[in-house]
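To: structure desk
From: M.T.
Subject: fold request, one chain
Message: Could you run this one when you get a chance? Sequence is below, nothing fancy, just the single chain.
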Amino acid sequence: MRKNFKISVLLATLVFILISINVLVMAKRNSIKILPPIKDVPFNKQLIVLFDDILDEIYVNNNNVYVIDYKNSKHPISISLGNDKKSIVISPAKAYEYGRTYTLFISKNIRYKNGKFTNVTIKRQFTISKDIESNELPFVESNEKLLTLFEECQKNYNYILNIKKDINYSSEKTVAENVDMKNSNVEYSKTNIQVEGVDEGDSVKTDGNYIYEVANNKVYIIKAFPAEDMCTESVLTYDRFNPNEIYVDGNYIAIIGTSFLDKPVIKDYEKGLMPPYYYNYSFIKALVYDITDRKNPKLQREYEIEGSFVSSRKIGNIVYLISNKYHYYDIKKDENITPLYKDTAIDSNFKNIEYDKIRYFPQFIKPCFLTISGIDIKNSKKPVQISSYIGAGEEIFATDKNLYVTVTHYLINYKNNQMVKESLTDSYYNTLIYKFGFNEGKTNFIAKASVPGSILNQFSMDEYNTFFRVATTSGLEWRNDDNISKTNIYVFDDRMNLKGKIEGIAPNERIYSVRFMGDKGYVVTFRTVDPLFVIDLKDPTNPKILGELKISGYSNYIHPYDENHIIGFGKETIEKEQKDENGNVIGTIALNMGMKMAVFDITDVKNPKAIYIEKIGDRGTDSEILYNHKALLFSKVKGIIAFPITVMDVEDESDITSYGKFSFQGAYIYDFSLSNGFKLKGKITHLSDEDFKDSRYYWYYSNKNINRILYIENKIYTISDSIIKAHNIADLKEINQIETK
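Reply: Done. Structure tokens follow.
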């Protein structure tokens, strides 16, 4: 009896323990982790939630990750894993509403790659900021207000701007006059771009079956695949329109270029005064065609905006055009000088952007209109979304969510006819950075910032995990005091608040190239040697230099190969002594020589090293890739690197500092791998033997100069303004060619 009692007690104890363990496990599975709320976030805020191990992407979906709005409904979002696969990135598919609070939920059903559950539900509230644009950027509202703003600008900055209240103008303005590709499995190259998912316009595009080329003031649609059947399908010709770049999306092509209206004619002016400059009505024009039938493209819509072209990007169906309209001429009091535009989705008439649609930045006025236009190329009935500001743009950087526009602000201005330095900083100029958020074709201002110095190009900027990074050169190279040139790195949060910086890198040098890759940055500076700096950006509040390598020459463009290797394209240099009239050495200068490619191994970030170097030609050798990254063809899968180049070779090797004689123009094509380095596969030219004979010592522009190289399947195509050639990639044997004159 007593024995049975003990057994019963033991069983009861075991059951209790098992139930307790199960309750604890269930409690753990049902636990909720509430993260601190976030306030004052942008309307397009990207949320990133970090985990401690690699996640299984199958479980990272809308059932397990969702956002609840203030109406207790699910807000549309897009979800992806971060590059490290240990984080979930949540972006709004539709912009969040200003001033509203939302809640992010991540279910406990999320699993790691090893099969284990995360066992915790994550909850986080976030509140969208108020409409910064509406609250901080006033509208111009009227012509009188606009003239007042421009007059103030004239007082402070000595612009060639003269506002006359009684000049009479008279002007007469005349306006210048189905293949389904979605299921194509053809492998083909794409334009070399900076940010994945953000396309950049170029003079040549391919969709794997056709090549689209801008040349000779025309747009050619070429049937390119298979190469043996290559032929011209159609040619679009223009009058008073100069096409510059294109975008292709399925059965639609967008052509971007410049157009013109007649200049105003000045009838009279104040006696004794020199007449103001004639004003040229220059426009950025976008034409969108339906190319379902490649032999017969059909124009779907036209859009024109007055001004000069800054840049463009394509995200999804939307092409964004960024333009400036400057004013350096006399303005009549009742003259409407806001940008003219025409959108055939509305009507075919030109009209001015209304004053109450143009905003200005109170602390910074330039006699210029910065306009951002969003064009849906697949919906010809949707009006263009126009955002216009008094300001200017020089360089841009874009992600799929944000647009950053920069403009140089010189700190030297004129007051009372005296040159005055505006700031006591060591830089004579700052770079102003305006951040805008993309919102279904429209852009909304988010924040602005200012950094000392100037940026080099779009690669000087980057965004990673919502932090914006920028590299600048401040000071002047020829100075030898506190104002000497130096390199700086700045890191900002998503509200453009400064979070970290490094200043004073490489005194007496300036930036020649920059590339940000994840949590690292690579900066090349130069004066007489080429220092490559490796920057650690893992902690945005504490960026630091990890390593440095000095070699001769410099890189103008840095291309990523993988997380541990980068390729630099630039020039070799040599140092040459400078002597005074008595023959005394007073310094050295660096002379550019031929082109150079270098592969840098940054596996050991503290000791980067150049593992392969390839030199091409002598002094005078040049390539478009050194100033335009779109000229590069790079494929890690196929193991090829190709680019257009003009080669100059020195005949007298005893004087390598002299300019070389022209020897080649065309494409250099390399096999490349980390195990074998650069191996020249071959050269392709469009020049004939007669062309080479006629070139004599130098070679200038020719419509036979190769400017782009691309591949479709196992064929490589070289493109000039007059010829397209197709070759086998394996042996570069020519397959076919056509003329595009």
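Reply (cont.): The longest strand covers residues 585-601. Let me know if you need anything else for the meeting.
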